[in-house]
């Protein structure tokens, strides 16, 4: 049975070994992967960097999905962003010849798998620990960062769907 014939991820039951408090975040991230795979199926590489109405390209959304998840996981671990992560952030949305849809989708899927692995291995007592976000160290918590990563991913998947729908018309 392929995912088209299955209910949404959150209706398929618990993700094994993920704490109950992180089930919604895990479900949202896994749903995001399935939706990205579905929306990008047969999507033309030639349209990856088109910016309809001056808005973000599909390429940006695909890069950003991976980048923001990576950054939220870093902050949740109590670390600062590396020079590599800051460079990735600066270049999100920049058309690169070596980047294609499959590469971007695979990178996001791999980052979600990493997140689920972290969810499976984090002690629940750590979830409420305070964490600083960004250079200003704005206040959050481990669980807040995980939920923001999931929510933000869902937001960009929706934007990706609209962007792909619009650029496919041309």
Describe the structure.
By secondary structure, the protein is mainly α. It has one domain (16-169): Four Helix Bundle (Hemerythrin (Met), subunit A) (Up-down Bundle), CATH 1.20.120. It is built from 5 helices and 2 strands, in the order H-H-H-H-E-E-H. Strands 1-2 form a two-stranded antiparallel ribbon. A hairpin with a 4-residue loop joins strand 1 and strand 2. Helix 1 packs antiparallel against helix 4 (101-121). The longest helix is centred in the last third of the chain and has 28 residues, at 142-169. It is globular, with a radius of gyration of 16 Å. The relative contact order is 0.20.
Task: Please render the helix and strand layout as text.
Blueprint: H1 23-40, H2 58-76, H3 83-91, H4 101-121, E1 130-133, E2 138-141, H5 142-169
Antiparallel strand pairs: 1-2
Question: How would you summarize what this structure contains?
Answer:
The chain has helices at residues 23-40, 58-76, 83-91, 101-121, 142-169; strands at residues 130-133, 138-141. With 170 residues, the chain is mostly helical. The chain has one domain (16-169): Four Helix Bundle (Hemerythrin (Met), subunit A), CATH 1.20.120.
The helix/strand order is HHHHEEH
Helix count, DSSP H or I runs of 4 or more residues: 5
- Spans of at least 5 consecutive residues whose pLDDT stays below 50 are none
What percent of the residues sit in helical stretches (DSSP H or I)?
55-70%
- Reported by name, the CATH topology is Four Helix Bundle (Hemerythrin (Met), subunit A)
The CATH class turns out to be Mainly Alpha
Envelope shape: globular
What is the level-2 CATH architecture name?
Up-down Bundle
Largest sheet composition: 2 strands, antiparallel
**Rounded Rg:** 16 Å
User: CATH-wise, what's the superfamily?
Assistant: dinb family like domain
On the 0 to 100 scale, the average pLDDT is: 93
Intertermini distance: 33 Å
Number of strands: 2
**Largest sheet strand order:** 1-2
């Amino acid at each position: 049975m392929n995912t088209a014939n299955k209910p949404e991820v959150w209706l398929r039951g618990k993700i094994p070994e993920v704490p109950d408090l992180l089930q919604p975040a895990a479900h949202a991230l896994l749903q995001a992967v399935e939706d990205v795979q579905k929306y990008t199926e047969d999507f033309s590489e030639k349209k990856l960097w088109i910016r309809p109405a001056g808005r973000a390209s599909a390429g940006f959304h695909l890069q950003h999905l991976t980048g923001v998840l990576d950054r939220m996981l870093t902050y949740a671990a109590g670390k600062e962003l590396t020079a590599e992560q800051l460079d990735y952030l600066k270049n999100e949305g920049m058309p690169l010849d070596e980047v294609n849809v499959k590469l971007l989708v695979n990178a996001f899927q791999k980052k979600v798998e990493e997140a689920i692995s972290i969810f499976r291995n984090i002690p629940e007592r750590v979830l409420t620990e305070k964490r600083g976000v960004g250079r200003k160290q704005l206040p959050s918590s481990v669980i807040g960062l995980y939920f923001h990563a999931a929510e933000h991913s869902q937001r960009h998947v929706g934007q990706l769907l609209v962007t792909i729908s619009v650029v496919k018309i041309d």
